[in-house]
Amino acid sequence: MQPFAYHKVRDAETAIAHGARDPQTIFLAGGTDLVQLLEDGISRPQGVVDISALPFDAIATTIDGLRIGALAKLADVADHAEIRARYPAIAAALGETASPMVRNMATMGGNLLQRTRCLYFRDGVSPCNKRAPGSGCSARLGHDAQAALFGASEACVATHPSDLAVALLALDAEVLVVGPSGERSIPLDRLHRLPGETPWIESDLEPGEVITAIFVPREAAGRAQAYAKLRHRASFEWPLVSAAVSLALVEGTIEDARIALGAVAHKPWRAETAERLLIGRRIDDALAREAGEAATDGARPIAENAAKIPLMARIVTRALQDCARQQAGDPS
Ligand SMILES: Cc1cc2nc3c(=O)[nH]c(=O)nc-3n(C[C@H](O)[C@H](O)[C@H](O)COP(=O)(O)OP(=O)(O)OC[C@H]3O[C@@H](n4cnc5c(N)ncnc54)[C@H](O)[C@@H]3O)c2cc1C
Ligand code: SF4
């Protein structure tokens, strides 16, 4: 681990000032991802600013929707009665995240900004443009069954591993931030960047900006919604592929659909062809399968990740079937 200056802050202004002074400063929340990266020498900041004592952990319903503090623990959000009842896609995504121990430490903001699970990035030695700009991309040259199917570049084919981000994209959530230029909100879809030629720039956040909360519009609570995930083992594992679906239904007919895919791109990815196909139709098993196939539209496999394409179709189908069961009043 490279030595760094450690600052524990009690107010957002001090955190922002540290971040604005030195763009290489990293914020520490629950530490479940960052500490590993520091220990392995993958992150080498001059300064670490511990924001865990900031008052950003409340979960509150407002007239417009739901506001979840960025420092709320995943376990508390997953168990929150209103979130389970009205935003079940969030509760389901968090319920399938990591393990109970990790969920007790990990925070909402940290989950969204966790780094990729690309093995070459994490091994600390292989050429990797994200870790060592200009060194090359071992995943593109080597074997990577996890690589992105959408939005990848010559420079990087990594995927974003968050379960939560996928559910939030399907619910049209926003991320609220505060920084040197004041407060602003970022639609979830614009929080993460595609890799392009600069895969080390992963989010839209400016130096010194802290995520304070996640906002989910009230309209999302009225939708049928589901989250489904496929992984190599039944717990304690990031997604191989995942999908979140939210449907606005009027007397059983789909008026609007949002489908988000996970672990298939550098950011959570909208399946827009499948969304369009659902509009004006009634959800049933056949339509769920048709939309699952449509969700693979535009996928660009490289060598060893083509197996994720049929898995993606199945996981979207499963999430839509869950919505159909909810519609039919079947709790299973
Ligand atoms: C064994 C294991 C299994 C896991 N399995 C899964 C899984 O199945 N699915 C899944 O989605 N995740 C999984 N995770 C990832 C885990 O959910 C994240 O590590 C965790 O959510 C990160 O939150 P944290 O508070 O610990 O963030 P930290 O590790 O403290 O920080 C992570 C990043 O976020 C930044 N950051 C944190 N909070 C803020 C903020 N408020 N404003 C600005 N920047 C901020 C930090 O600077 C850092 O870059 C797993 C982790 C482990 C260790
Ligand atoms: S896919 Fe991205 S993170 Fe993985 S080795 Fe290539 S540049 Fe690095």
TrEMBL record:
Q: Which Gene3D superfamilies match?
A: 3.30.465.10, CO dehydrogenase flavoprotein, C-terminal domain, Uridine Diphospho-n-acetylenolpyruvylglucosamine Reductase, domain 2
UniProt lineage: Bacteria, Pseudomonadati, Pseudomonadota, Alphaproteobacteria, Hyphomicrobiales
The name on file for this protein is Dehydrogenase
Superkingdom per UniProt:
Bacteria
**What SUPFAM superfamilies does its record include?**
CO dehydrogenase flavoprotein C-terminal domain-like (SSF55447), FAD-binding/transporter-associated domain-like (SSF56176)
Q: Where is the signal peptide?
A: none
Pfam families cross-referenced by the UniProt entry: CO_deh_flav_C, FAD_binding_5
**In its keyword annotation, does this UniProt entry include Flavoprotein?**
yes
Give the transmembrane ranges.
none
Q: Which GO MF terms does the UniProt record name?
A: FAD binding; oxidoreductase activity
Keyword set, alphabetical order: FAD, Flavoprotein
Q: Where is the FAD-binding PCMH-type domain?
A: 1-221
* InterPro entries for this protein: CO_DH_flav_C (IPR005107), CO_DH_flav_C_dom_sf (IPR036683), Diverse_Substr_Oxidored (IPR051312), FAD-bd_PCMH (IPR016166), FAD-bd_PCMH-like_sf (IPR036318), FAD-bd_PCMH_sub1 (IPR016167), FAD-bd_PCMH_sub2 (IPR016169), Mopterin_DH_FAD-bd (IPR002346)
